[in-house]
Amino acid sequence: MYSEKVMDHFQHPRNVGELENASGVGTVGNAKCGDIMRMYLDIDENQVIRDCKFKTFGCGAAVATSSMATELVKGLTVQEALKVTNKAVMDALDGLPPVKVHCSLLAEQAIHAALWDYAEKHGIKIEGLTKPKNDIHEDEEEVVEEY
Amino acid sequence: MDKKIYLDNAATTQTRVEVVEAMLPYFNEKYGNPSSVYEFASQSKKAVTEARDTIAKAINAASNEIYFTGGGSESDNWALKCTAEAYKEKGNHIITSKIEHHAILHTCEYLEKNGFEVTYLDVDENGSVNLEQLKASIRPTTILISIMFANNEIGTIQPIKEIGEIAKANGILFHTDAVQAFAQVEIDVNELNIDMLSASGHKINGPKGIGFLYIRTGLKLRSFIHGGAQERRRRAGTENVPGIVGFGKATEIAMATLKERQESEIALRDYAIDRVLAEVPYTRLNGDRRKRLPNNMNFSFQFIEGESLLIMLDMQGICGSSGSACTSGSLDPSHVLLAIGLPHEIAHGSLRLTLSHDTTKEDIDYTIEKVKEIVAKLREMSPLYEDFMKKHNR
Fold first, then answer.
1. Of A126, B56, B203, B327, whose CA is between 20 and 30 Å from B308?
2. Mutation test of the interface with chain B: which of A27, A59, A63, choosing the one with the most B Cβ atoms within 10 A?
């Protein structure tokens, strides 16, 4: 079902944990739908992401996309991190099953939420960043089966 | 990974060697069509008759009350749709429960779109239907009560005898989906006032693609599959002779070993339940502690998600299942776990383990050790656990 890279990141997730005194923390998803991601960013004075950690409640794909997202944004500037899309996360994992694409969206949203928190705390405006939604499933329509 | 511990016997079972051996001659030696007249084909006919007798005896039915089908889902569809059709002059109301298998629930939804009314009974926190609510739901137009014998996810065994009495006292037909219960617990259709019963071969170490519907003599139920005159004109299609023979053999073995299997599985199940509840914090058992299938365990581990748990168990060679949304392909976790009152996030963290006759204590000890490790690892990764621990200063 999952690619080798997804399985690798699920079995050996990179950057699991918390950051004390993080520059920005973002939590997205909801427990009702079965996935929550929390992203911690440590950002230096040049707006470069020095460190990134995550915690995730969710399926294998949710863990793997969080792990990959932290790897992708580490060392990037805030502006560069904003351009890490869910597609970039998926590509880096050699793809996801169609039903798991929303996990990669969650990863993108988690980064944005953490960046938003950082911008708010530091009174900065990040060009192109909008306030993250609380619940990423708001946009999703449930597929209704016909009998 | 060479190790394989199969604890998903409610999903399907390994076909027994004896069953396969009994089936094999009916593929390339005795392959005649039971409906043909020549002597060669009579071997097939005889085999089907013997299997039917064995199965009828297992539930104390008459042989001509057993109708072979393509499996449990077909049996459920047949019972509901054809009862609705046959008795629509009497009424259009059906009573079932919220925790039925989808073969029942989706068939009920289909009937609702075609003018029938369905009451879905609630269940209590252990998964049992409330008999008072059942009685109160009966209308003059009620034609059928369909309540499963035992639940496939949480293993709860329903008060079937009491439901049968209520149905009989009110002149209402009673169908039970016994796919998980047939040949796992004792069933006597006469003592329990069951009018129709669905069962499946592959849940009792028989082959897949074969099931039966028991239809009490005298019921007006017509054919669901139209065509030839097989199954006393009630189910057309050339008989799945190898499947029927295999189902018969599996039933014979399952019934001969019923008592000892129940004893050993209950002992192992209770040992495992006690250990998991004692050794894994923030865990609950889903389903009734005692009134449950001998081979069923269903736990919810707080703060973690079921699919992650299943994949990690799989890496250790352990096969289980979960009611999490991620394993169902929808956003909602199992309807059964929600019906017993679990919040979504706890329903997402469920694990069902179902034993077979050859599960050993070593298998269970290994599994429990792995469950402990994996649950701890996933909790370390969980923001819900982090929040919980901070809130409680732990």
1. B203
2. A59
Does B158 reach chain A within 8 Å, measured CB to CB? no
Would you tell me how many other CB atoms lie within 10 Å of the CB of residue B3? 9
> Is ipTM over 0.90?
no
Residue A13, SS3 per DSSP? coil
CB contact under 8 A, B331 and A147: no
d(CA B28, CA B26): 6
- pLDDT tens digit string along A125-143? 988 898 877 654 544 444 4
Specify the 3-state DSSP secondary structure of A52.
strand
CA-based radius of gyration for chain B = 22
Token pair listed for B359: 């599960």
Angle, vertex CA B306, rays to CA B301 and CA B312, nearest 5:
100
Q: Is residue B300 helix, strand or coil?
A: strand
B326 is catalytic: yes
Which regions of B148-234 does DSSP assign to beta strands (E)?
173-177, 196-200, 211-215
Catalytic pick among A33, A59, A76, A88 = A33
Q: Which residues of A touch B386 (CB under 8 A)?
A: 18, 38, 55
Q: Which pTM does this prediction carry?
A: 0.93
